Amino acid sequence: MTTSEPLTTTTDPLAVLTCDVCPHPWHEHDPLGVRYCNATAASALPRGCICS
């Protein structure tokens, strides 16, 4: 299998996934925050964090 981008995986247990929409780490999102940030990213909306 060939790919134009290298496949990356992290084995660092301290690595924190960050949200592309808001400044919060992904693991701090509740179900409403997950839905809000996913919809914001998918629609490329210029809105801030749901917490604001």
Query: Low-confidence runs (pLDDT<50, min 5 residues)?
Result: none
Total of DSSP H or I helical runs spanning 4+ residues: 1
Beta-strand percentage range: under 5%
Mean pLDDT: 79
How far apart lie the N and C ends? 44 Å
**Shape, per Cα inertia axes:** elongated
The rounded Rg comes to 14 Å
What order do the helices and strands follow? H
According to DSSP, the number of beta strands is: 0
- Structural class, please? mainly alpha
How much helical structure, as a percent, in the residues?
25-40%
Q: Mind summarizing the main beta sheet?
A: none
Protein name: RGCVC family protein
Organism: Lentzea sokolovensis
Detailed description of the structure:
With 52 residues, this protein is mainly α. Helices cover 25% and strands 0% of the residues. The protein starts with 30 loop residues before the first helix and ends in a 9-residue tail after the last helix. The mean pLDDT is 79. It comes from Lentzea sokolovensis. This is RGCVC family protein.
